Amino acid sequence: MQENKNPLIIGSDHAAYILKEKIKAYLIEKHGIKVEDAGADSEKSVDYPDYGMKVAQAVSAGRVERGILLCGTGLGMSMVANRFPHVRAALCNDLFSAVMCRRHNNANILVMGGRVIGDVLAEEIVNVWLNTAFEGGRHQARLEKFDNIHH
User: Fold this and answer.
1) I need a surface site. Which of 50, 77, 88, 107 has the fewest CB within 10 A?
2) pTM here?
3) Under a CB-based contact definition with an 8 Å cutoff, are residues 108 and 87 in contact?
4) How many CA atoms lie within 13 A of 151 on its CB side?
5) H or E element: which one contains 10?
6) Under 8 Å CB-to-CB from 127, ≥6 apart: which residues?
7) Which strands form 89-91's sheet, in the order they lie side by side?
8) Known catalytic residue: 71?
């Protein structure tokens, strides 16, 4: 397993604020990763696209290599993030998806649902997502087919 010490950006809406705070602490304490927090800053109701766009823009522009997004189900954040060029956001509420989105899809944004999974499972998902390498090869050619789509 490879530890990824590169900084990453994390964001959530109000529904996943508490999980975001736990994941942020986990990244810093257990993995030694510098974390940029894009918000939200409380459980007060906010619009998830605002935070999804901040994280996706940072990854899309290459300012950070990876990001994590959380909302109630993870669905909305996935939809927002995948509208940005070169973003490959993967909704992973289980370990197998977290491994495969890295191995085959080189996912650069992990999305999870704060109302779907608990904090212990979320930490395990983050751990395998951080430590699973992209296999490249035939998978790289497949990624290039959609990474270079111009709207």
Assistant:
1) 50
2) 0.94
3) yes
4) 5
5) strand 8-12
6) 30, 31
7) 35-37, 8-12, 66-71, 109-113, 89-91
8) yes
Q: How far apart are CA 24 and CA 57, in angstroms?
A: 19
**139 belongs to the catalytic site:** no
What are the counts of helices (DSSP H) followed by strands (DSSP E) for the chain? 6, 5
The residue with tokens 């649902």 is 113
| Residue 23 near residue 126 (C-beta atoms within 8 A) | yes
Per-residue pLDDT reduced to its tens digit, 30-62: 999 999 999 999 999 999 999 999 999 999 999
Coil, strand or helix at 6: coil
Q: What span, in angstroms and rounded, lies between the C-alpha atoms of 114 and 71?
A: 6
Q: Which of 14, 71, 92, 101 is catalytic?
A: 71
Q: Which of 31, 86, 104, 139 is catalytic?
A: 104
Q: Are 93 and 120 in contact (CB under 8 A)?
A: no
Contacts 24+ apart (CB under 8 A), 80-83: 80/48, 80/49, 80/52, 80/53, 80/56, 81/52, 81/55, 81/56, 81/109, 81/111, 82/56, 83/56
